[in-house]
């Protein structure tokens, strides 16, 4: 599959048609086959792209403009409706092609299970990979109601692949007793409830390491992002999420080699503030993380 075969017709603000020169490839993963509460995140990538049109290409935070980098929006990966196993395989195959061309993958979900095949492929190229995970939910279950491929399991799979001590979790405020005990007993860098303060504290430890960043939009309090499948009260503000992205981007020696933002479900937010804040976070990721 070529990148342009995944093209969905609408692109994120500032994207370039020049794949050869692009440092980063943006792509959608429109999957919500395993959600446990409210479906609809498969419509997130398209709506986030549309919402990006409200933004400027210039970031006053990073003092950079999207015109200063070349990134390619490949559109949405065609995924077989309802088939989680094949969808995971298709995502992995697509990301492998991105990495073969020495480009950084930046994905838009879709449910959080889509992170698993991306990290699995990135790890093949970066053996000392660490994962920074911002989320309301631990996602450390071995299965959800008997299903091992679930949006409740990706970080457990990632921890088993990389080793728990290479997983850094922030903002977690929901999970089973077993998940919390696993995180605390298996040396996951587990920072429940908070994001910015503990994140700033651990970034020096990641100097010289390749890092993958995954953001579940429900790390935000539902007041800031009601359009998500599993909202969880008690979250952070959009300002703090942006500050966390900027802290990673500005951290000396930390090389981001891949990233994603997931779990935007537009139907539950008629105000459209959720896709707008997601688009802004993606803009900051593009400007802050692209080589």
UniProtKB/TrEMBL annotation:
Binds 2 manganese ions per subunit. GO terms for molecular function: agmatinase activity; metal ion binding. The keyword Cytoplasm does not apply. It comes from the Bacteria. Pfam families: Arginase. Its cofactor is Mn(2+). Mn(2+) binds at residues 112, 135, 137, 139, 216, 218. The keyword Metal-binding applies. Keywords: Hydrolase, Manganese, Metal-binding. GO terms for biological process: putrescine biosynthetic process from arginine, via agmatine. Belongs to the arginase family. Agmatinase subfamily. This is Agmatinase. It comes from Melghirimyces profundicolus.
């Amino acid at each position: 599959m070529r990148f342009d075969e995944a093209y969905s017709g609408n692109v994120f603000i500032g994207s370039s048609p020049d794949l050869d020169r692009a440092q980063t490839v943006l792509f959608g993963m429109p999957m919500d086959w395993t959600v446990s509460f409210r479906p609809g995140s498969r419509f997130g990538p398209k709506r986030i792209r549309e919402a990006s049109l409200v933004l400027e290409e210039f970031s006053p935070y990073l003092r950079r403009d999207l015109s200063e980098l070349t990134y390619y929006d490949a559109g949405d990966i065609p995924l077989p409706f309802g088939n989680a196993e094949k969808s995971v395989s298709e995502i992995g195959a697509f990301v492998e092609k991105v990495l073969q061309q020495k480009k950084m993958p930046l994905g838009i979900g879709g449910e959080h299970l889509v992170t698993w095949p991306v990290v699995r492929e990135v790890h093949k190229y970066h053996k000392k990979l660490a994962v920074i995970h911002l989320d309301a939910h631990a996602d450390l279950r071995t299965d959800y109601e008997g299903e091992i491929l679930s949006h409740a399991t990706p970080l457990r799979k990632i921890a088993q692949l990389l080793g728990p001590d290479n997983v850094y979790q922030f903002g977690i405020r929901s999970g089973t007793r077993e998940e919390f005990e696993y995180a605390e007993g298996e040396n996951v860098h587990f920072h429940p409830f908070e994001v910015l303060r503990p994140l700033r504290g651990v970034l020096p430890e990641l100097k010289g390491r390749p890092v993958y960043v995954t953001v579940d939009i429900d790390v935000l309090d539902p007041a800031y992002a009601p359009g998500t499948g599993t909202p969880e009260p008690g979250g952070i503000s959009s300002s703090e999420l942006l500050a966390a992205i900027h802290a990673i981007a500005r951290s000396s020696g930390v090389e981001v080699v891949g990233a994603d933002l997931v779990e935007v479900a537009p139907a539950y937010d008629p105000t459209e503030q959720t896709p707008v804040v997601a688009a802004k976070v993606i803009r900051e990721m593009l400007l802050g993380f692209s080589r």
